[in-house]
Amino acid sequence: MHNVLAMDIGGSHFRVGLFDHEGRRLEVLEGDTSLSGGRDWMLDQLRELSRELLKRADYPVKACGISFGGPVDFKRQQVRSLHVSGWENFALAQWVEKTLSLPCRVDNDANAGALGEYRFGAGRGSPSLFYITLSTGIGGGFILEGRVHHGRDSLAGEIGHIPVSDSGVVCACGARGCLETFCSGTAIALRGREWVSRRPESAAHVLELSGGKIESISAQAVAEAAAAGDSMAVGIIQETAHWLGRALLTVVRILNPDKIILGGGVALAGTVLLEPVRQTMRDLASSTLSYSTEILVAELEGYSALYGGAALGLELAAESGPIAS
Ligand SMILES: [Zn+2]
To answer: What is the CA radius of gyration of the chain?
Structure first.
């Protein structure tokens, strides 16, 4: 018997978790990310929470797996952040090895989410799956025969940055017209704010969910209002679903996975998003290229990436062989 440590480092929130040898979640400590604190602040938090969990473990902790919310060079095990300073090509796995004396493996949050859903969530038992995380930005991860496919430059699955329009706005990645600029949480929130400032009389519910302030309207408020039947919010989610459905049909055409799993905060909207996505895909489908790929919502809710961290830790633990307990 052994335990593993998992970390999920995100732009707004972070978590450290203790898992058993079968990937059951035992305990999770978490907090809000301080963007101004930069890398050193985050490393201090991770070290303290990890040491606390290591003290509480009933069995030897054999390895650590990390989901990182930014680009990860998987071969070199280095991370970067597009939003927080100090992470440029930082050897995060090596830091854990030195600081906590644990072997460690890091992947980006979309690949980790894919792995989490594959091992413990909606993708259990699927030979292949594509996971798409819809939150502030959009990421994706492809799993084939139990392994994440990283690609030559650790860029496989970056569905948020496929160009879908010539006239779109500039994306966080620096390119123009990326899918992310049309259907990320940021895009949904922006569309909600634009709508409300033009027609406030039609947006009472969204405004109420946002404390009466247009600038506080979030993707979650739009999704909640849509789930409650608010017609303006439903319109925004349907527009989002239109872009998303096109992109997912592209995934089907290139990879034809067994499952496509929607995760991240926007996917918590559930049916209100899923149904129009499926409908868009049906509308665009070809009668001669029918497919049976299932489109599902993640089962692990906000925890897909943390479970992916646990899966990475368990992989490493298995590679390092038996441990005396
Ligand atoms: Zn982009």
So the answer is: 20
